[in-house]
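Can anyone check this?
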Amino acid sequence: MWYFRRISPVQSIHRLKYITFVGAGGKTSLIEHMAKGLAEAGKSVAITTTTKIYAWEPYRLMDGDSRPEEWEKPFVRVGKTLQGEKLTGVNFQDIIHLGRLYDVVLIEADGAKGKPIKFPASHEPVIPPFTDWTFVVAGLDALSKKVEDTVFRWELFCKAIPMDRHSIVTPEVFSGFFSDPILLKGVDKTRFTVVLNKYDALMAPGKAAGLARNLISAGTVPTVIISSTLHQSFYEITRF
């Protein structure tokens, strides 16, 4: 029996400390949405990264001269250094320290350079071992488009599968990304949720529900959220 309901994803994490986001296709938008919701609920929130994030204000650096105890509440972005327009990744001890000062720490642990889906390099993702929950994100706007246009690190993907870079991302190809070597790499299989973002980009949005059911039926994904962070709409699909 399938259970389909509209949710606020913030409610599922408000009692957790360290929440990590991996994948592609809307991680940053989802993090920003959750940070706003948590702050509105009275939580202090730090957004940080083990890779890179945009240095949007307010941000602070965890360098040798920093005094995190004096930083803004309830919300701040944190990196190790400023590199162009981005904050560079902090280490695990930095994240633990942030957890002592803020109610919730949201961690972007993967990079995709704006692509809807990705194939991880050998060093990716960088998930803290103390993560309480992981959101695995992918953009539905990858469907019906070429691999080379939608997959970050498509060269690695085409070598591993193997597949031609001009191949189309079908629902079957898309679903195949939710496996241990790809988007589920390094993820604690007892504490994660898949997020299929940008359902508003589909000509037939109902296809998203079919994809979600197929992922759950395969037995590797317990819960799927179908979302449009653009329209702040989130629907959870589970099976009982």
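Reply from J.R.: I decoded it. The two ends are 5 Å apart (CA to CA).
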